[in-house]
Specification:
Elements lengths: L3 E7 L8 E7 L4 H4 L13 H14 L1 E7 L1 H7 L1 H14 L7 E5 L9 E5 L2 H4 L1 H24 L5 H4 L5 H10 L18 H7 L4
Helix pairs in contact: 2-6, 3-4
């Protein structure tokens, strides 16, 4: 029996925090899959739906999670950082998959077969399950970051470039978990302000 894992990420377009990936192997039994029949692209689910499905996916599936920090993103770029997070997620499955179904990305360092699917989280159950795991896990991390870095609204926008977030950047400058290479986000901050707010002065 072939072992197939779905892989997805969240946080590529954020201005702060990590990019986070998940890999999920689902069982073949339809009776078990019925428990996650509402799984689809995590962006289309309400937070309470994601939380409920998160627990169900963990109960019936095999799950691995990996992340790449804002520092890795700044150093290597969002593409390599995303692939790094996905590699970590696959490596943490505890089981070596025979084939990967991945939303858009390919992982050339892995020897197993791969199928890259555009809009995979809307078309493939295991990718959708991975998107839910990744989204809930990252949202929880950003909620913790909101307590450590108050005033940015991380608990609301989770690091995405909302008007609230941009206004916070104008008022406070970037904090320690902002991606400084996402330069358009910091157009209203001077280089001196950015250095000061990151403890380099």
């Amino acid at each position: 029996m072939r072992i197939i894992a779905g892989v997805d990420e969240v946080g590529r377009g954020c201005l702060a925090g990590p990019v986070l990936a998940a890999a999920v192997i689902l069982p073949d039994e339809r009776s078990k899959l019925r428990h996650i029949s509402g799984v689809r692209d995590s962006k289309e689910l309400r937070p309470e739906e994601r939380e409920r499905l998160f627990g169900r996916i963990l109960r019936i599936g095999t799950v691995g999670v990996g992340l790449a920090s804002h520092r890795l993103i700044d150093r290597y770029g969002i593409g390599p950082a995303t692939r790094f997070a996905m590699l970590k997620a696959v490596g943490r499955l505890g089981t070596e998959p025979d084939h990967l179904l991945i939303d858009w990305v390919r992982l050339p360092l892995l020897p197993c077969g791969q199928t890259s699917i555009v809009d995979g989280d809307a078309l493939c159950l295991s990718i959708a399950a991975a998107s839910v795991i990744a989204k809930v896990t990252r949202d929880r991390l950003m909620a913790k970051a909101a307590s450590k870095y108050p005033g940015y609204g991380f608990e609301h926008h989770k690091g995405y470039g909302t008007p609230e977030h941009h206004q916070a950047l104008v008022e406070h400058g970037p904090c320690a978990i902002h991606r400084l290479t996402f330069r358009p986000a910091f157009a209203d901050c001077t280089i001196a302000e950015m250095a000061h707010h990151n403890g380099h002065t």
